[in-house]
Amino acid sequence: MQWINQLGPSEQFALFSAVKVLAVFSVVMFGVAYAVYVERRLCAFIQDRLGPNRVGPQGLLQPLADAGKAFLKEDFTPGHVRKVYYWLAPALVMIPSLLTLAVIPFGSRLGEQKMVIADLNVGVLYTFGIVSLGVYGIVLAGYAANSKYPFMGGMRSSAQLISYEVTMGLAVVPVLLWTGDLNLSQIIQAQAGFVSWLPVLPNWMAFQSPMTFLAFLLFLVAAFAECNRLPFDLPEAEQELVGGYNTEYSSIKFALFFMGEYASMIAASALMTTLFLGGWTLPIFGLDAPAQTLWAGLAQIGVFLAKTAAFVIVFIWVRWMLPRFRYDQLMSLGWKRMTPVALANIIVTAAWLWAAAR
Amino acid sequence: MAVGGCALRYHEIFSPVKMIVERKEMTWWERLYLPALWSGIKVTWRHFAQTFFHHRHAAAQTAGGYHPEFKWQVREGYRGAPYLVRDQNGRTKCVSCQLCEFICPPKAIRITPPGPQPLPDVGNVEKRPAEFEINMLRCIFCGFCQEVCPEEAIFLKKDYSLNGLSREEMIFNMEKLLALGGVHQDEIMKWKRKADEALAQDEFPPIQQPDSPNVANQQRCT
After folding, report:
1. Which residue of B has its CA nearest to A231?
2. Per-domain residue ranges for chain B?
3. Binary contact (A320, B44; C-beta < 8 A)
4. Are B57 and A320 a contacting pair at CB < 8 A?
5. What is the ipTM of this complex?
6. A252: closest CA among A37, A68, A48, A42?
7. pTM of this prediction?
């Protein structure tokens, strides 16, 4: 390991960044594969079935078989599509959800290395900038397919994503006011220890005050809409739109859409964990301070992954619990209910902080 | 006295039922969606717990478990795959009339008639197909072949799970169909009686003709 110390600081930075990018990417891809598996098992249990349980013990190798099938299927390009956009769209769906993960701290530190790919000062703003790109892939897919159902899906998704992004952005402002920082690592630092009004609850953002709890709820609902998950899956809407924007896609391109959906679900879960549920911290065993030992660092990564997985399970469970909103209900919920509440939440938070500061 | 004197007119008795479904205004609490959310959690959790903790899923309650290990118990009158049958003497009942081939809606049946040569094990009694093929990929299990068969030679059995690795494998030939079909306990044994009669006919003393006593036999042999 002597050669690492002989490298210059910028070379070390590049090397460790590359290692972290690879690690995060592979963990997320693994997570995507197994989120699909968990979704299939969980929905089966809810529907009195067993789900895929044949490939390997308890069907645990099912994602491998699925991947093999997706790669080996015929990659069919219909004659009526707009080819360039058709090829571009799946990648555009996949990329933003992976880019979001770059600023999320998934652990405090291992040795000298901070466990975040890019420790941006404006991490939250970056995330929202990237998340808003997600709509382009879907709109482009709907446009490129050049047929009516995908087009409907693309139209719906653009309206829905734009509406709920407003709520999402506004919902997170009280958190920024509360912590006074845009850096996600600093936001996590502000959530260490126990909450002041009830010292058995962890000092997570969702528990710190009624306003941040409301912000958490608004953000959660908006995240469902942003990830196109039920009850807001109108862009896909299997029963009405035959799959919506991905109707004309097959093989690995369809799989990319599928993986993009789950990757954005994981990214949203990671973001919510970071903003509202204390990220990698746990108020016990001293896990709320940056790790001094390697084992503590690994334990904090484990805590982060567990919280994210819990959110993913919530996403999955809700999908099999709630029916889809009607389109006008979706829009009126977004604009007439959630956006005003989010705005009011900002004002109340600001007033509270002003009163507290006096 | 007027008979009846019923006050109801025809349209009053037979008018369609009118029902006004009252759309209740939802309360503030209901419009929060929280009660609906809570009842959703209750229902899904109940089903999840039934399956996950107690293994009381739907297949376990109907068949005992999932398919390859626990076969579904087919009910009476189920129409599965069509197979050919033999009678209790081991005789193929099909006489190659080809009615099933003609009636088969997806044209899954293909019969090769025996041609003019009598088959050695049947004799000159009745035809028997030289080959009988059912393409199980095309068969729709409609049961027309069974209905139309004048010989009760083809039956829809209870097989519902037909698997193969190639298209050729799914074309069942006569040997396979007969093996799968098994024996039909035939009470009438029509062709056995015919065969017996034909045999008895052979034993009749031939018509005596002065010049050539065995003409009839010779003609039959050529």
Report:
1. B37
2. 82-181
3. yes
4. no
5. 0.79
6. A68
7. 0.77
